Amino acid sequence: VFTGSMIGSGIFISPTGILRLSGGSVGVSLMIWVFCGILTILAALCLCELGMMFPESGGINTYLLKTYGSGLAFLHAWAYCLFIIPGKGAIQGLALGEYISRPFYPSCDPPQIIIQLIAVSLTLTVVTINCYSVKIAARLGIFFTFAKITALIIMSRLLVDCLFDDRTCRCVLVPCASNQLSNHAIVFQGLFPYAGFINLNVITEEIKRPERNLPFSIIFGVTFVLGVYIVVNCAYFLVLSPTEMLQSFSVALTLADRTITTWSWVIPLGVSLSVLGNLNNSSLANGRIAFVASQRNLLPQIFSMIQVTFLTPTPALSLNLILMIIFLFPSNIDSLIQGTQFMEWFFIGLSTLGLIICRWTHKDTPRPFKIPLIIPVIVTLISAFLVVTPLVFDPDPFILYATLFTVGGLLFYFPLVFFNLKIPYVDYITIFFQELLNVSPPLSM
């Protein structure tokens, strides 16, 4: 789940965005990939210590609840279930539609409606499988992970062929402006391919021997993914010029057309399977967030119920599906990346700040895994920079919308959660959806 959730659409979308925001500099682009990989490892280790302190499923939602109380936990569930998860799912769906449709339109861009229809149909298929059987979804995840690694190995082999054919890099390490490395937009583009790293903490309860397996999975998994990303980017840069990369959204397909023209269809197939796997693994993990938040009375009761026949969190998965389809139709991938990463790192920063606070407020809580204090301090400061900079200096409309949407959650938190006011007829609505979806509360509730 961990590696499969990370390797997906990001490596096939972000290279162009990172190169564009770095002013066409190959050196800066590679530095961003390494920097974001290291930051991901540090943030994941912080969440790992929190996961050992509070070994419950729910990930960041659990840590915010234990550290700050129900207010921030509600805002996290609100933003994550209604904005971050569907936004990231829409990015994956649009990338999937782009790579599947692109080979059928070799001389022009595919129509946007075709991309959106492909995205809707495949998103619906993946979520339906997750609603039907967790076991089948997990097995598909293994297959898709194998397929995506195979596709990346083929692309990496192109790098080796280029080296042995005495090809030289078609790009140069051009100087960059002084503010390039401090540009939040380029960092968000670089963090997006690693965004699946938090999925492991969502299912902490289901991991055997988490005190050993969780840190090992984080360090090995992110390091492995970082290595794969660097090798694949080198393949891009050795074969394609910066201009060619900046003109291509489907950069992997452009690479295939340039190097293996006869078998170039293999790359879009591998990329499509890769993104499908990422979408599948994300659905497998993210559906549990609304499920856990509802069990804690942070979301409506219906989302804490499971399907009677298949024993899957069908209401939570259905909510994700509906919102993902809505997010597909603005179709601006860059804005979706900026908005989702902004909100995600806002809550990651709160979690790492909470870890610092817990060193004093939870001194006696057992810690099977403990990191040096400097690590959460670094991650908290970087997260604060990533959140404050776009709001103050370069406010993207989508980021402003995400901020207002999250803060607006307080209008629901205080009457419905804090004061526990009951909405008229809500029980009848819950019963209606129970009968419609054939769901009931788990026996353990």
From TrEMBL:
PANTHER family: AMINO ACID TRANSPORTER, SOBREMESA, ISOFORM B. GO terms for molecular function: L-amino acid transmembrane transporter activity. The lineage of its organism: Eukaryota, Metazoa, Chordata, Tunicata, Ascidiacea. GO terms for cellular component: membrane. It is found in: Membrane. The chain crosses the membrane at residues 30-51, 63-85, 113-133, 140-160, 185-204, 216-240, 260-281, 302-330, 342-361, 373-393, 399-419. Keywords: Membrane, Transmembrane, Transmembrane helix. Signal peptide: none annotated. Coiled coil: none annotated. The keyword Repressor does not apply. It is a multi-pass membrane protein. The keyword Ligase does not apply. This is Amino acid permease/ SLC12A domain-containing protein. It comes from Ciona savignyi (Pacific transparent sea squirt).
